[in-house]
Design brief:
Layout lengths: L1 H48 L6 H17 L10 H28 L3 H26 L4 H19 L1 H10 L16 H13 L10 E3 L8 E5 L8 E7 L1 H14 L3 E8 L15 H15 L3 E4 L21 H14 L5 E5 L13 H6 L4 H8 L5 H20 L5 E4 L2 H4 E2 L4 E2 L18 H6 L1 H9 L2
Parallel strand pairs: 3-4, 3-5, 5-6, 6-7
Antiparallel strand pairs: 1-2, 2-4, 8-9
GO molecular function: acyltransferase activity, transferring groups other than amino-acyl groups
InterPro entries: Acyl_transf_3_dom, Acyltransferase_3, SGNH
Keywords: Membrane, Transmembrane, Transmembrane helix
């Protein structure tokens, strides 16, 4: 009995010793874990607060690995398991979703206002807490069936919100005989004009995409180079159209009107970049200026259309310059034109300059008409830009240079002048909308689908005479 008791005591002492060893090891592990957590957290904070921009190739793996380490050692870690950090983890997904649109709004509207940047952080955290405490806690308690139904409802609702304008347009056009690009019918009213003008404005960029064109670079759509498909084999000519966004703006119209004459249509469109002078507003336009000539030289089209809204072409001539022979802007235009013509078999059509538009006034056309505002007042309002006098002088200079260019082309250049399509001789003003208020232009200063239809007969005549 004594021996048994002695053995039991020895075993008990061994167990106690082992427990003390295990606790010591656990304490050491927790201590080491704390050191690692402190180090990882400090490293992440250091990277976040680093005063200089670090390469993404360095930051992303460091942050990912650091965060992973913190997650692995967070269990029973005194620092990482405290209530404050745990709660931050709880609201983190809501914060991730919410902070970006708020930050983007600050970036686009108040970039540089640092105290407002701090307010975006505070606002994002407050909204994340609100969403977590109300919506997240609620749906986490739902059954799988209820969650699936909620997801389906939110998904359908999102699609409706995103596609609301397309859905509205389909409903409006249901049962109507519509074959034009603008979907305008004779029975529409000024209220329909308000709705259509709004749709054309918000879909301005989308309407620049030519469905018939196969783009060389998908990322650049609707800009870049593309070639129109599904042309008839019986077409006679190779056609090229080049310019800034106005080329994309005209793409579907040219394809519809000239397509039957063509066996190939090459399209090159780059925002702001004019063909006959490297637009100074954008540095990349100098490379495009060279690219236009190189592609035409490679393509060797029968006809070319230069469709560009003017910018640098309307720049004022240097002081004491009174002739085009001494005008450096015109000389560049002439040199580029002659280079292009050397690669064009027949003729080059050039879109003439059109007055600058008060883009902020486009959305006011139909409401002003509905309120009884005189049309001439609206005409003048739409051309009253911020720098009206400067814009008017630039417009006149561009037209003079284009006119001289045609004289120096030896009959191979033809101007496409929209002024006569929009100028109202009776009132002496440019009329940028029809009698019911449907606008011919968008707030992006492109032709609206209604404007495209307004100039369609110009292109019908051009294409028939090729």
């Amino acid at each position: 009995m004594v021996v048994y008791t002695a053995l039991w005591n020895i075993e008990d002492q061994n167990k106690q010793f082992k427990n003390r060893v295990v606790r010591k090891i656990d304490d050491n592990n927790r201590l080491n874990s704390s050191y690692v957590s402190y180090f990882s957290l400090a490293a992440l904070l250091f990277i976040t607060a680093f005063p200089y921009t670090l390469k993404a190739s360095i930051v992303r793996p460091l942050v990912t690995v650091g965060t992973g380490c913190l997650m692995l050692i967070s269990e029973d870690n005194v620092m990482l398991s405290n209530k404050v950090l745990t709660y931050i983890g709880d609201i983190s997904y809501s914060l991730y979703l919410i902070h970006w649109p708020i930050y983007a709004y600050w970036k686009l509207t108040y970039d540089g206002e640092q105290y407002l940047l701090f307010m975006t952080l505070v606002t994002s955290i407050a909204l994340a807490i609100l969403v977590f405490e109300t919506f997240e806690k609620w749906y986490l308690k739902l059954s799988s069936t209820s969650t699936a139904m909620l997801i389906a409802i939110l998904f359908v609702s999102s699609i409706i919100v995103i596609k609301k304008d397309e859905i509205s347009n389909s409903i409006d056009s249901f049962g109507k005989n519509i074959s034009s690009l603008d979907n305008v019918t004779s029975d529409m009213t000024v209220d329909d004009a308000t709705k259509k003008n709004y749709q054309w404005n918000i879909n301005d960029v989308a309407n620049l995409i030519a469905p018939s064109c196969e783009y060389e670079t998908v990322r650049s759509i609707p800009m870049g180079w593309c070639r129109h498909k599904d042309l008839k084999p019986s077409g006679k000519y190779k056609i090229a159209m080049i310019g800034n966004s106005w080329t994309a703006n005209h793409a579907s119209l040219v394809y519809q009107e000239c397509g039957y004459q063509a066996n190939s249509i090459l399209q090159g469109s780059f925002g702001y970049c004019e063909v006959l002078y490297p637009t100074t507003l954008r540095p990349h336009c100098h490379a495009r200026f060279i690219d236009y000539e190189q592609r035409i030289r490679s393509e060797k089209p029968d006809y070319a259309f230069v469709l560009a809204r003017y910018f640098s072409v309307g720049s004022p001539a240097p002081k004491n310059v009174t002739s085009f022979d001494d005008d450096p802007f015109y000389q560049v235009m002439k040199e580029q034109t002659l280079k292009l013509l050397s690669s064009i078999k027949h003729k080059m059509y050039i879109l003439d300059a059109f007055p600058s538009i008060n883009d902020l006034g486009i959305s006011q056309i139909a409401p002003m008409l509905k309120d009884g505002t005189d049309r001439v007042v609206i005409d003048k309002f739409l051309l009253k830009t911020k720098e009206y006098q400067k814009d008017e002088e630039s417009y006149q200079m561009a037209r003079k240079r284009y006119a001289q260019l045609v004289k120096d082309c030896n009959g191979r250049c033809v101007l496409i002048d929209y002024a006569e399509k929009f100028y109202n001789a009776t009132t002496g003003t440019y009329r940028l909308f029809d009698e019911k208020g449907f606008t011919y232009f968008t707030s992006g200063t492109h032709l609206s689908p209604h404007g495209v239809e307004h100039v369609r007969n110009v292109w019908t005549d051009i294409c028939a005479k090729l």
